């Protein structure tokens, strides 16, 4: 199956095109600039680089959060439009699961993190079992010090949620194993690898679905005057 993957949930945004498990090409935003304003031209450029067109695609994969509200909304809206126009399947992958897929198969658990502010992060825990990615603890919000302090075995850590607190965490003697630098950011490659499994299972996103924000948007916070997470 030929499919397009999009990661737009964080500042590290990218697109990739796959044929089954093979990554054909990928493009990432440059110099920290957001991909979303130039998303369609970037996708066109990506497909042209491997002599493909949108009409050649047979499936779509998109990151559905957690992450930035604008990036998630634009990413899902764009891929939903492609889905309807091309009449091809669309699946959604947790940003944190896609991050875990950056790391090769290992016997160790994988802690994926995305920074929110200071020590507060989105996080989830995964493990490889029989060459399948299994979610041990679902996406949630927490204090990275408490999360790492609660680990019961050596754990591979990924994402900026732990990296922005790296010095403090390592000084506390937690059993953390750093993933290589090129695995530390959410990527369309990771989203695509995870999404391929869902495409094979036909685990499609329902029409009208919304991103997995976990916490309320700024507008919702303004209404409620609360920063409490909603799930």
Automatic annotation (TrEMBL):
It is an enzyme of class 2 (transferase). GO terms for biological process: tRNA threonylcarbamoyladenosine modification. Keywords: Acyltransferase, Transferase. Its EC number is 2.3.1.234. Residues 38-132 form the Gcp-like domain. Pfam families: TsaD (PF00814). The keyword Acyltransferase applies. GO terms for molecular function: tRNA N(6)-L-threonylcarbamoyladenine synthase activity. The keyword Transferase applies. InterPro entries: ATPase_NBD, Gcp-like_dom, T6A_TsaB. This is tRNA (Adenosine(37)-N6)-threonylcarbamoyltransferase complex dimerization subunit type 1 TsaB. It comes from Candidatus Nitrospira neomarina.
């Amino acid at each position: 199956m030929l499919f397009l993957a999009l990661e737009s949930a964080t500042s590290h945004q990218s697109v990739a095109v796959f044929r089954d498990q093979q990554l054909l090409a990928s493009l990432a935003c440059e110099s920290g600039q957001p991909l979303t304003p130039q998303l369609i031209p970037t996708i066109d450029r990506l497909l042209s680089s491997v002599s493909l067109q949108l009409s050649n695609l047979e499936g779509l994969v998109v990151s559905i959060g957690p992450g930035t509200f604008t990036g998630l909304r634009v990413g899902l809206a764009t891929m939903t439009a492609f889905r309807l126009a091309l009449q091809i399947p669309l699946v959604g992958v947790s940003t944190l699961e896609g991050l875990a897929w950056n790391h090769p198969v290992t016997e160790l658990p994988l802690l994926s993190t995305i920074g929110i502010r200071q020590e507060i992060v989105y996080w989830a825990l995964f493990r490889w079992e029989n060459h399948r990615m299994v979610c041990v603890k679902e996406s949630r919000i927490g204090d990275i010090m408490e999360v790492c302090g609660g680990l019961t075995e050596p754990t591979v850590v990924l994402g900026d949620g732990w990296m922005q607190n790296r010095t403090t965490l390592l000084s506390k003697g937690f059993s953390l194993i750093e993933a290589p630098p090129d695995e530390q950011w959410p990527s369309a490659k990771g989203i695509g690898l995870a999404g391929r499994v869902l495409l094979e299972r036909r685990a499609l996103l329902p029409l009208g679905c919304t991103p997995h924000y976990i916490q309320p948007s700024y507008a919702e916070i303004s209404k409620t005057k609360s920063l409490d997470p909603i799930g």
